UniProtKB/TrEMBL annotation:
<protein>
    <submittedName>
        <fullName>Na+-driven multidrug efflux pump</fullName>
    </submittedName>
</protein>
<feature type="transmembrane region" description="Helical">
    <location>
        <begin position="184"/>
        <end position="204"/>
    </location>
</feature>
<keyword id="KW-0472">Membrane</keyword>
<keyword id="KW-1003">Cell membrane</keyword>
<feature type="transmembrane region" description="Helical">
    <location>
        <begin position="305"/>
        <end position="333"/>
    </location>
</feature>
<feature type="transmembrane region" description="Helical">
    <location>
        <begin position="21"/>
        <end position="41"/>
    </location>
</feature>
<feature type="transmembrane region" description="Helical">
    <location>
        <begin position="345"/>
        <end position="364"/>
    </location>
</feature>
<feature type="transmembrane region" description="Helical">
    <location>
        <begin position="88"/>
        <end position="109"/>
    </location>
</feature>
<feature type="transmembrane region" description="Helical">
    <location>
        <begin position="160"/>
        <end position="178"/>
    </location>
</feature>
<feature type="transmembrane region" description="Helical">
    <location>
        <begin position="121"/>
        <end position="139"/>
    </location>
</feature>
<keyword id="KW-1133">Transmembrane helix</keyword>
<feature type="transmembrane region" description="Helical">
    <location>
        <begin position="376"/>
        <end position="394"/>
    </location>
</feature>
<feature type="transmembrane region" description="Helical">
    <location>
        <begin position="400"/>
        <end position="419"/>
    </location>
</feature>
<dbReference type="InterPro" id="IPR050833">
    <property type="entry name" value="Poly_Biosynth_Transport"/>
</dbReference>
<feature type="transmembrane region" description="Helical">
    <location>
        <begin position="53"/>
        <end position="76"/>
    </location>
</feature>
<dbReference type="GO" id="GO:0005886">
    <property type="term" value="C:plasma membrane"/>
</dbReference>
<keyword id="KW-0812">Transmembrane</keyword>
Amino acid sequence: MSLKKRLVNNGLASILSKGVRVLEQLFLVPFFIAAWGAAYYGEWITLTIIPSVMAFSNLGFGSAAANSLVLTYASGDKQKAANICKTGFYIITIMVLIAIVLGAIAIYVLDIFHVFDKSLINSQDAILAVSILIIARLLNFYDQLIESFYRAAQRAALSINLLTIRAALNLAAGLFVLLLEYGIVAFAISQLIVTVLFSILYWLKGRSVLGLYKNYTGTKDAVILKGITTKGLSYLMLPVWQIIYFQGTTFVVRIVLGPEAVAIFNTARTLSRSLNQLLYLVEPTVFPELQIAIGKNDWKTAKQIFRVSIIGVFLLSLIGVIFLAIFGLWFYNIWTNNELELPQAMWYTLISAMLFNALWYTSEMVFRAVNQPKRMGIYGIIAAILSVLLTYLFATFYGITGAAIGAVSLDLILVFLVVPNGCKIMKMSMNDLVSHGADDFRELFQKILKKIKK
C-alpha cells in the first residue's frame, strides 16, 4: 500500500476515533450531572485523580518498548524486534505489579488520614470504585506495545479503529449505568469489564497482523532491557508533567474555590479543548508514517510530513478558536442544563490556548518518533510546575477566571521550548519550517485542484 493510501486510511480512522473521543468527553457530562448532581460529580472528578495518575504512567515503558520495536522493525532487524517485544512485555508486567502495590499503598494512606471521609461520596464506595478503576487503567499499560505491532506492520488504521471500538463500548457502558441511576461502583465495574475483554482481543489480533512470531522467537535480552528501562524513565516524565498539570490544576481549584468550581473548571476546559481532538487527528494520521520514514532514514519525506502537519494544524486551530468564540458559550449552557455559570472572560481565555497547543503538540511527536523523550519530559515538567503555581496565584486573587489564565500559561511556555527543538531534531530551522512549509502547501493544493478538475 502506498504512503498516500496509508495516510488517507489513517486519517479516516482518526476522524472516527476523535469523533468518539469528543463524545466520550462531552456526551456523558449531562448524564453525570443529572444522575449525581454537580457537586457530587465534582467530587468524583477529584477522586479519579488517583486512577488517572496510574493511567498516565503507561506512557513510560510502553512507549519506550513500542517505539524501539517500530524503528528496529522498519530498519529490517526482525529478530531484534521480536526480542524487544518479549522484553517489553516482561518489563511492562513488572511495572503493572509495582503500580498495583503503589496504588494500594496510596489508597491505604489516604484512608488512614480520612481523606475519603471528607468527600460528599461515601468513603467505602469511593475506595472500592477507585480501586476498580485503577485495575482497569493498569490493564491499559500494554496498549502501546500492542499498538506498535499494527504500526510496524503499516496497519495503523486498523489499530485506531479497534481502539475507537473500545472507546465506544466504554461510552455505552457508562451511559447504561447512568441511565439506570447506579452509583460510582457500578460505573467503575462497567469500565473494567470492557477493558478486560477488549485487551485480550486487541493483543491476539495484533500478533496476527504483525506475524513476527511466525518466523522469529523473541527472547528476553538484558541489553534491550536496560535500554527500554532507560528510555522508559525518560518517557515517564511525559505522563508526570501531564499529571502535575491536569490533576494539579484541578486540585488547586478544589482547594481554593471548592467542589462546584471544579465542575465548572473541568467542564469548561473539556469543552474548550473539544475541537483540539479534531486537530489531534493529524498526529495519529502522520505519526506512523513519520516514524517509518525516519526508521528508513528517508529524511526528505519525514521533513515534508512534519512541515505540512504543523502548519496545517495551526491553520485549523484558527478556525477552531473563531468557532468556539461564537458558539461555545451557547453550547456550554445547553450542555450543562444551565446549572453551571461560566464567566465569559474565563471562556475566551481557555479557547486561546488552542493556538499555542496546536504548535507545540504537533512538534512534540518528533521527540517520540526518534525515541528521544527526555528533553520533552523536562520541558513539560518545567511548564507544568509553573502553570500550577500560576493557577494557584491567579485563582487566589482573580477567582475561576484567574485559574484559567494559569492553566493556559502551560501552552504558551511550551511553544517557546518545544517548537524550536522539534525543528532541530528534524534537521531544519524555524525559517525552513515556514518557507518550505508554504511551498509544500502550495504543491499539495495544486495536486488537489488537478484531481478536482479531472
